[in-house]
Amino acid sequence: MKILVIEDEKDLQQNIVQSLEKEQYIVETADHFWAAYDKIENYKYDCILLDIMLPQGNGLDLLKMLRKTGNTDNVIIISAKNALEDKLKGLDLGADDYLTKPFHLAELNARIKAVLRRKNADGLNTISSGNLALYISERKLLIDSQEIPLNRKEFDILNYFLFNKNRLITKTALAEHVWGDNIDQADNFDFIYSQIKNLRKKLQNADADVEIEAIYGVGYRLIEK
């Protein structure tokens, strides 16, 4: 899961990033309006933490832009402005939640998990397909009730495929989702091939009812057998 933290207070931003990385999220940051604008214009995120007061602009203007694209249901506003009017304005613009500074990082993590569950699994914590069950919070895969060990990237890839079952996933989209926008610096997709190869082998050896189908020259698709 990929999260964008739009926050100009460096210490708070760093604390949030460290906390989220411990939860195995991919975290990217922006510390002013135009950096945030560039990221949400060019990349997709599973959750966005948005401060209202930003250098060079206002977070609510970013929220308006997100609203036009229909991507506001994964936004949590984090702001020192605790007036009811500010909260209502943010929620009216489509933000999913509002957290007033100062807050405990444990509470922020709980809010993020709630947003991700609603966004990706309609409130459920488990994705099932055939004899396969993926437990999101526990980061655990069961096939025929037997746990199959996955590394972090294998889990993230399978999670992404299951949420997009039967859909063509391009190599670029997969790389951006699982590895973040630092993928721009990569020379090739060899690291994706390696992770996909290992994941396919584990699914095959466990007689999973799903398989990852390669679409030559384009990407992959997860299908039920």
Description of the molecule:
The protein is α/β, with parallel strands linked by helices. The chain has two domains: 2-121, Rossmann fold, CATH 3.40.50.2300; 126-224, Winged helix-like DNA-binding domain superfamily/Winged helix DNA-binding domain (Arc Repressor Mutant, subunit A), CATH 1.10.10. 43% of the residues lie in helices and 24% in strands. It contains eight helices and 14 strands. The strands form four sheets. A five-stranded parallel beta sheet has the order 2-1-3-6-7, with helices on both faces. Strand 8 (126-129) and strand 9 form a beta hairpin. Helix 6 packs across helix 8. The longest helix is centred in the middle third of the chain and has 17 residues, at 105-121. It is elongated, with a radius of gyration of 18 Å. The mean pLDDT is 84.
Summarize the structure.
By secondary structure, the protein is an alpha/beta fold. It is built from 8 helices and 14 strands.
**Nearest-angstrom radius of gyration?**
18 Å
Shape: elongated
Count structural domains: 2
CATH class type of the largest domain: Alpha Beta
From the 3D structure, determine the CATH topology of the largest domain.
Rossmann fold
* Major sheet details: 5 strands, parallel
DSSP strand content: 15-25%
- The helix tally amounts to 8
User: How are helices and strands ordered from N to C?
Assistant: EHEHEEEHEHEHEEEEHEHHEE
Specify the structural class.
alpha/beta
Task: Report low-confidence residues grouped into runs of 5 or more.
Answer: none
Percent of residues in helices? 40-55%
Mean pLDDT: 84
Intertermini distance: 26 Å
Order of adjacent strands in the largest pleated sheet: 2-1-3-6-7
The tally of strands reads 14
Instruction: Please name the fourth-level CATH homologous superfamily of the largest domain.
Output: Response regulator
CATH architectural category of the largest domain: 3-Layer(aba) Sandwich
